[in-house]
Task: inverse folding
């Protein structure tokens, strides 16, 4: 059974972040350049929020007039859910499904180690299931 630490080793631990004062325009530009769906919002090296494409879309729909100069702090999700490196992919999937979120920062001893996405979790689950199937097929053909 795969764990978060293994996922980070496979995908890398690059963390893309902005400050709470960053404009939505700059944040969206960074997300496009880095090809990511969310950015960690850091203040004094502490995670104070997460800004996702979903947060941006909701802000655009709810604010009239809408300004791309609005700071990220006004639209970010402040209640951030985390996972630890030892947690399983199944635990991550359950948390993401229950909380209806697509990104989870990985935290250990108050240190941000990386971010995993729903895509990372699905990919790991598929690999885990493929391995199990191969093992079962091997067992069946050897019998």
Result:
């Amino acid at each position: 059974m795969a764990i978060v630490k293994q996922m980070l080793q496979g995908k890398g631990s690059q963390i893309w972040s902005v400050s709470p004062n960053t404009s939505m325009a700059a944040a969206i530009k960074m997300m496009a350049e880095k090809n990511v769906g969310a950015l960690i919002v850091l203040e004094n090296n502490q995670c104070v929020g997460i800004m996702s494409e979903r947060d941006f879309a909701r802000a655009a729909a709810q604010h009239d007039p809408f300004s791309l100069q609005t700071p990220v702090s006004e639209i970010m999700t402040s209640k951030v859910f985390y996972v630890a490196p030892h947690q399983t992919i199944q635990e991550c999937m359950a948390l993401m499904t229950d909380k209806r979120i697509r990104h989870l920062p990985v935290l250990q001893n108050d240190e941000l180690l990386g971010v995993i996405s729903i895509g990372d979790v699905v990919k790991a689950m598929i690999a885990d299931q493929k391995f199990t199937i191969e093992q079962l097929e091997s067992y069946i053909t050897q019998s």
Q: What stands out?
A: Helices lie at 4-11, 24-34, 53-62, 89-99, 118-142. The two ends are 25 Å apart (CA to CA). The mean pLDDT is 92. The chain has one domain: 4-142.
